Amino acid sequence: MDVLGAWRAFVNVGERGSFTEGAAATRIPQSVASRRVAALERHLGERLFDRSSRGAVLTQFGRDMLPAARRLVALADDLEYEADRARLNPLRLAVPDICSVGDLARLAVEARQDGVRLDLHTAGPVARAELARAREVRAALVAVPPAGAVWSVPLGLAGTSGLLPATVYLETLRAGRAAGPVRRTRVWIQPEDDVPHIRDRVMRIRDAVGLQPAQVGVAAGLAAAAAEVLGSGDLLLCSGRQAAELGLHWRPIGEISPARGFEVAAAVGDDAERVRSRLRGPIARCLGAPDPTEAHDQG
């Protein structure tokens, strides 16, 4: 038995003194209203209406139950209203500050179409993790090693020259490899990639192939790193999508295959699962990562 539906039908019929009008107010057929009230009477073991009278006349038991039934129905309506409001509350999500405004806008639109309203907050990798720990956001896309990531973005080196080899080996940047006294090429790491599983791997290769310490540096921001590369022969560690946006030529690295990894951190598990399951594809497109759902379908 639909207990709440039965009490709602009882209240509407009792207030109007008519099964026809009460059913209309409940937005159900009269036959359904009659069945619900009858089921409620069987459940309570008492009659709510005097069936011998014309119309819907409340028995004494029915009159005694009507005030409490009104309170129950009103409380149910309040709960539904609060549930609607809660669904409209935006989910504040910390995302990488390398995402473009256009990509973030499309992410918000796609999320809304899937029933999730987002309040997007851009930040670097360290700040995003801290925002999640401090519960200043409901969820955050945090940087993790690719092996444990939901989204993974391959990284390579990009520069202004279209003459870069198909694969760039860091060892070819050693001093003395090029003919003549030329400026040493530097590799710039942007803040989004200034995390141990990316930065440390690049630094280890730098040391292993004999590059100078200054030949690999961490820039203050993506714009600063891009400016260094656009104004020289330096190289930027970045994704293929970033390279295309900056008008650079992107190549994989010969010695290693670094990648950004992203996972969802949230104080409430439901928020994390909601982001992972319902927004997996849209977030992949925002990050410039392969869509994990498409990869799964193809597998």
Keywords, separated by commas or semicolons:
single chain; 299 residues; alpha/beta; Arc Repressor Mutant, subunit A; D-Maltodextrin-Binding Protein, domain 2; nine-stranded mixed beta sheet; two-stranded antiparallel sheet; 12 helices; disordered C terminus
Task: Summarize the structure in words.
The chain has 299 residues and is an alpha/beta fold. The protein folds into 3 domains: 3-88, Winged helix-like DNA-binding domain superfamily/Winged helix DNA-binding domain (Arc Repressor Mutant, subunit A), CATH 1.10.10; 91-148 and 260-298, D-Maltodextrin-Binding Protein, domain 2 (3-Layer(aba) Sandwich), CATH 3.40.190; 153-258, D-Maltodextrin-Binding Protein, domain 2. Helices cover 48% and strands 17% of the residues. The strands form 2 sheets. Strands 3, 4, 5, 6, 7, 8, 9, 10 and 11 form a 9-stranded mixed sheet that branches. The chain has a two-stranded antiparallel sheet with strand order 1-2. Strand 3 (91-96), helix 5 and strand 4 form a beta-alpha-beta unit. The radius of gyration is 32 Å and the shape is rod-shaped. The relative contact order is 0.13. Mean pLDDT is 89; it is low at 177-181 and 295-299.
